[in-house]
Model the fold of this input.
Amino acid sequence: MQVTRILAVRHGETAWNRDTRIQGHTDIELNQHGRWQAERLAHTLREEPITACYASDLSRAFETAQAVARLQGLQVHSHTGLRERNFGRFEGHTWAELEARFPEAALAWRQRVPDFAPPGGESLLQLQARVVAAVTELASRHPGEQVLMVAHGGVLDILYRAATRLALQAPRSWTMTNTAINRLLWTPEGLSLVGWADTGHLQTDDGAQALDEKAG
Done:
């Protein structure tokens, strides 16, 4: 059985990531540091054999994918199934604001209640179904090939759980750094994990790196 190799990447940093504002479906562009991250990612992946580049249609993910695609001579194909979770009325608020204004809802979110949905938004169960369906659709087009998928923190969380067979409510012990390189395999039987959170390309001259994990 031929497998599809997936390079799954979270978009570069945005101003709302820095402010810990919930982005969700709100279309926030990359900030200067996020564009630097995208270029470092592209430089690192320039020798990788990539057949196709897919991204969420939100600009922070699409622009990150474009940086890679330019050096590969490819186009970026957008797919709404790779969008971040829809956080409804939570979008635009910081974590502190959410806890102050919607304490019960914020607690349900932090406890990862699978069927809890922010007002006007998606539950984890809905997000899981959407993301798994989208990745299955895209990966099944490329047996024996490698594809890039640029998405969001919530999407990457679902992919990690699907590949490691972890429940939606299991505590998170893995990072989802902006533009970290995550490697997965897909077959019709599902996803498996090869490598996670490679941030070598984000090392600066003094050995430091950014580890931003704000939602979105």
Notes: The domain at 4-86+123-202 is CATH 3.40.50.1240 (Rossmann fold). The chain has one domain: 4-86+123-202.
